[in-house]
Structure formats: structure tokens, C-alpha cells
Amino acid sequence: MEGPTSTGIPNRKLAMWSFIGSECMLFGTLIATYMIYRGRNLVPPYPHDLLNIPFITVTTFVLLMSSLMMVLALAAVQRNDLRATKLWLGMTALFGLIFLGGQYYEFNHFVHEGLPLSRNLFSSTFFVLTGTHGAHVAGGVIWLSTLLVRAVQGKLDARHAETVEIAGLYWHFVDVVWIILFTLIYLLV
Amino acid sequence: MSRHSAESHPSTRLYIAVAVILAALTALEVMVFYIEALAPVLIPILLVMMAAKFALVAMFFMHLKSDGPVLTAIFAWGVFIATAIVVGLMAIFGKFGA
């Protein structure tokens, strides 16, 4: 167990928040690039020809609900309920995988419709921005899976609540980034 | 245990309430997108709802409401810089012009 700190904030938690702060700037540059080139496409296909709002609304809903699963996993581990911890961690990772499956389907659909990465300004900025986010989701799913394995092995209890909370902070950050991307890319098309 | 302990975190009921609001706001965003009469004010409406969803996740799911001002300041600084990058570059490249 980590000892007291001068700030009253656990060091690992402070480190995760500092990391999240720096990640904001990374996504800020990618979003800025997307927004600058938005509407300057000279070569078809154009975003409104391809973006499937109903489909992406469903995957957005899945990612939002995964954040609920994550806080339920944290609440479960804090009250030392191993069974609920395993359930909610597993559900969070599963919802993350469903989101990634949706993104794979969308990317595949775009490529088949004649929009590979280097086709035009939209494809380059869209794939880099949403792909970077997807890579973060994939990293989160791997992280959650390691926690799930520890829970299944009986090595995750209330003493490790902070470990689950830190993984949760990362997962919720991935969620808030998608809240922004959903609006800027899909609804303000 | 630090003062950032489990006792200060929201209840399960509050977590579910926040998730329901997030889902409702997402549905509302998509509805607004399809209403042609709202096209002239679509951008501000969607940005406000996006900001509301962002704040709900940060405050309740990420526990910033209960975890004190230091962590909020670290996150707010990152969000401020990111926003400044986006708005500044969009202005430089003439995205706000007539």
C-alpha cells in the first residue's frame, strides 16, 4: 500500500491525470487538423456520402454505457464483491470490443466504397483521428482484460481499488474524447 | 487511505442516473441533427449538448466533482490548451470567416 503524499492524492492517480492532460493536447492537434481540412475536399467520395449516423449512434451508445459498466466495476471492487467486479470488468471490455468491431466495419466499408487512407483530405484526417482513438480503445480493452484475469485468479480485491480506478480514468477519458468526435465528425458534417 | 477514498464517490443510483442522461442527450443530439428547422442553430445546440455530456462524465464517472481542485486543474489545463489549439488553428486557417 502506498503511503501518504504531500498533495493527499495518490501518486499513481496524479500520474494518470497528468497523462490524461497531455493526451488532451494530442487529440487537440488531431481534431484541429480534421477541422481545418473539413469541407476542403476536392476529390470524392465526400463525408455525407459515407457517414452512417444511425450505425455510429449505436456504437456511441455502446461506448457510453461501457463507462457505466466501468464505474459499477469500481464500486464492486471497493465493496470487495469479486463476482460483480468480474461481471462489470468483463462487460466493460466486451462493450469496448463491440465498439472496435463497429469501427472495423466502418473503416472496411469506407475502403470498399473507394475511400482508402490516402484518397483525399477527409480520408486522411478521418482515419488518423478515429484510428488514434480506436488504438486508445484497444489499449483500454487490453488493460481491462488484464484486470479481469487478475479478478478471475482471485488477485483483485478492495486493496486494489485504486488500480481499478486508474484504469477507469483512462477508460472514461477515451469515452469523453469520443463524445467530442461524435459531434464534430458525424453530426457537424 | 487518502482523502480520495471510496466514501466520497457517487452512489450506484447516481451512476445509473448519469448514464441515462448521457443516453438521452445522445438521442437528442441525433434528433436535432435530423430536424431541418433547427439547421441555423444546429452548431451551438450540438456544442452545448457535447459540453454537457463531457462535463457529466468528467464530474461523476471520473469523480472530479468529489476528488478536489488539483486534479480538476490538471485536466482543465489540458482541455484549455487543446481547445486553444483547435480554435487558434481554425482561426489562422480562416474557418471562422464569412
Uncertain stretches of 5 or more adjacent residues of chain B: none
Q: How confident is the prediction overall: mean pLDDT of chain B?
A: 91
Helix segment tally of chain A? 6
* Mean of all residue-level pLDDT scores of chain A: 95
Corresponding CATH superfamily of chain A: Cytochrome c oxidase, subunit III, four-helix bundle
What portion of residues of chain A belong to β-strands?
under 5%
Order of helices and strands of chain B: HHH
Radius of gyration of chain A: 19 Å
Largest sheet of chain B: none
Helix content of chain A: over 70%
Number of alpha- plus pi-helical segments of chain B: 3
Tell me the overall shape of chain B: flat
User: Could you tell me how far the N terminus lies from the C terminus of chain B, measured between alpha carbons in angstroms?
Assistant: 56 Å
**Annotated CATH topology of chain A:** Four Helix Bundle (Hemerythrin (Met), subunit A)
Which features would summarize this protein structure in a list?
A: 189 residues; mainly alpha; 6 helices; elongated; B: 98 residues; 2 domains; flat
Describe the protein's architecture and organization.
The complex is a heterodimer of chains A (189) and B (98). Chain A is mainly α. Helices cover 78% and strands 0% of the residues of chain A. Chain A is built from six helices and no strands. The relative contact order of chain A is 0.17. With 98 residues, chain B is mainly alpha-helical. Chain B is 68% helix and 0% strand. Chain B is built from three helices and no strands. Chain B has helices at residues 12-34, 42-61, 69-92. At the A-B interface, helix 1, helix 3 and helix 6 of A face helix 1, helix 2 and helix 3 of B.
